[in-house]
Amino acid sequence: MSAEILDKACQGDRNAFSALVAAHYDFIHAVAWRWCGSESDAEDIAQDVCIRLGKAIRSFKGQSAFRTWLYTLTLNAVRDHQRQSSRRRRDQDRLANDPIFFSHLEPEEDDRGDWLWAAVRRLPEKQRDAVLLVHSEGLSHAAAAGILDCSENTVSWHLHEARKRLKDLLKKEAV
What we know:
Keywords: Sigma factor, Transcription, Transcription regulation. The protein is mainly alpha-helical.
């Protein structure tokens, strides 16, 4: 990759940016894969890095080698992805272990994970969105309220209603 392509990309030239991404995509993907060990996660991270690169390229000042700067950008994306995945798993486990939903099941009947998320997807739209934003995405009630364009109390109410509905669904499934 030439310095000219890098300079043009930094100045906003779309063709140069495309050439820059093409020249470095394999590097980005390989770094992501080495750090996360998953092909699908590495692909997601590489795509995220390309988006971040598009937003950050104008801030590259050449104080370090481009590849070093790109390596830092990629590692930050890997760390963000790992934090999000960890938060998502924790929230899914917390929801899947909520006794409100599963207190009526015998231990041998306890098939929580996939069923619960399938049931969440069957909820009315606002309840489903509140559950997914808070329990799957790990957002606060305030952040979810901002996205849903409602008050925090409304988010809490949707979550309460979703719990009741999911509990009823679980009881019906157990019969």
